[in-house]
Design brief:
Blueprint lengths: L1 H27 L2 E3 L4 E5 L9 E3 L10 E3 L8 E11 L2 E12 L5 E4 L4 E3 L11 E5 L3 E2 L5 E5 L2 E7 L5 E9 L7 E4 L4 E5 L9 E4 L7 E5 L8 E10 L5 E11 L10 E9 L4 H12 L4 E4 L7 H9 L3 E4 L6 H5 L2 H19 L5 E2 L17 H11 L3 E2 L4 E2 L9 H11 L5 E7 L5 H16 L3 E2 L16
The chain binds zinc ion (ZN).
């Protein structure tokens, strides 16, 4: 009997257990979540609740409370709880939202990823910065390794996102040695005098010892032009070459020279040529005269610089267009007024020094109005202007092919014991004149000339009008 009771009891317990289990499954499924039970949400993205369905029953008759917050600025696991009451039984379901950081840190290399380095040098770190959207500054966590001239930088953020950047070391030295002559690049000495090479300074980015070879001789017993060539070669074979010119001349010819050289530069200012010419004049402490025309206003500062550095700013023309300026006197004066106003606006001083485009002897004006130069040359003087032509032509706007030509044309045109007005140009890219200028000045000084700028007290040197 007892045994039978026990059997019945166990059977009931068994059946009840199965019922409870079935009920539990049934109940837990009542709140059915839309979407996934585990949602991955990237940092800073907004969490959108997808909602739920009530199974087996009529949705509207149940109040479902949803609780739980998702902080999308913090990596972590967040639980959303869905809760309701079915006939006095609490029913719950959960959703997990995982806020994840998927963005890798970044590493920034100072001075870039390609570094030039000398063949034997140990690489000295140029510096780097690592930062992460979530962890902030990770610079201290960067692992740096160097192998075969590649430097590798690695770092991971707290979520395991990692980044690797590389720096490449280029040990191929292509930089030339720096070779600077001591003393002047040009010497003018008298026959029989002694010449001592003042030597040079040499430096290189990689090589400690740089060989410098000096070729050429200076024979001071004979007049002539001598060239010394200095060649510096570093360990990688990069070579720099500089030259020095020594001119040996007969001084007797120029004893008691009272000659004056007026260097004049037409058609500027231009951004390439004018600063170089001004630099040379400054270095040599020589004053000169610039006959300017109108250029883009970005070069106005050069007119200012000419004036501020003590040179004369003369008027050449606004347009330099022969047809326009020589077709009538009214056009000429109109053009002159424009360049005069421009110069006065920049320097604050009215200029009364002019040079006719093409010179007063030009023959082109007769094509536009015959006889105009005869009238202009006498009229401008009565208006208070002084006009200057030239008696030494560098030919830098004509036949001179290179700096040597320019040098020779000027030197051959100079005459002692008179005023020498030298025509040159500071128009665009005039390397011929830039390259000859220092030697011309050296020659003039060595031969007893004085350099000066034109001002209104300077005697006019005028061509014969030819129209
Ligand atoms: Zn000109």
């Amino acid at each position: 009997m007892k045994r039978r009771l026990k059997k019945i009891f166990l059977t009931i317990v068994f059946i009840l257990s199965i019922m409870m289990f079935a009920l539990a499954i049934f109940v837990s499924n009542i709140i059915d979540l839309n979407g996934d039970k585990v949602v991955y949400l990237a940092l800073d993205n907004e969490y959108h609740e997808k909602g739920f369905n009530i199974k087996y029953l009529n949705d509207d008759s149940f109040d479902v409370k949803i609780t739980g917050d998702v902080d999308n600025t913090k990596v972590g696991e967040y639980k959303i709880k869905y809760e309701t009451d079915v006939f006095g039984i609490k029913i719950k379901n959960y959703r997990t939202v995982e806020v994840v950081d998927e963005e890798a840190p970044t590493i920034e290399l100072e001075n870039g990823s390609d570094i030039k380095i000398c063949a034997k040098d140990k690489y000295v770190e140029d510096g780097y910065k690592a930062s992460d959207n979530y962890d902030g500054d990770l610079t201290d966590k960067v692992k740096v390794t160097e192998k075969d001239d590649v430097v590798i930088y690695k770092v991971s953020d707290s979520s395991g996102n990692s980044v690797e950047v590389r720096r490449y070391l280029d040990r191929n030295d292509t930089e030339k040695p720096e070779l600077v002559l001591k003393g002047n690049s040009t010497y003018n000495i008298v026959v029989g005098a002694k010449f001592n090479d003042p030597g040079y300074d040499v430096k290189d980015n990689c090589s400690q010892d740089v060989d410098v070879k000096v070729e050429g001789i200076v024979d001071t017993s004979k007049t002539g032009s001598y060239e010394l060539k200095y060649t510096a070669v570093d360990e990688s074979g990069n070579a720099t070459e500089v030259k020095r010119h020594v001119r040996v001349y007969e001084k007797e010819k120029y004893i008691n020279n009272t000659g004056i050289i007026y260097l004049t530069f037409d058609d500027g200012p231009t951004s390439y040529s004018t600063p170089k010419i001004l630099d040379i004049l400054k270095k040599k402490n020589i004053k000169a005269t610039f006959f300017v025309i109108n250029h883009e206003s970005s070069t106005n500062y050069l007119i200012k610089r000419e004036y501020d550095e003590g040179h004369t700013v003369g008027l050449h023309s606004y347009t330099h267009n022969y047809k326009e300026i020589y077709s009538s006197k009214a056009n000429f004066y109109n053009d002159m007024k424009k360049i005069s106003d421009k110069v006065e606006g920049i320097t604050g001083k009215k200029s009364l020094i002019i040079r006719f485009p093409g010179g007063s002897s030009n023959t082109i004006s007769r094509k536009y109005q015959k006889g105009i130069m005869t009238e202009l040359t006498s009229e401008v003087k009565s208006l208070g202007y002084r006009y200057y032509d030239w008696n030494v032509d560098s030919n830098d706007a004509g036949g001179a092919k290179n700096s040597d030509d320019v040098y020779r044309n000027v030197i051959n045109g100079l005459k002692p014991n008179r005023s020498n007005i030298v025509l040159m140009h500071d128009f665009a890219k005039n390397d011929k004149t830039i390259g000859a200028l220092e030697a011309i000045i050296d020659y003039g000084l060595a031969n007893g000339y004085r350099f000066d700028k034109i001002d209104i007290t300077t005697s006019m040197i005028n061509h014969k009008v030819n129209n």
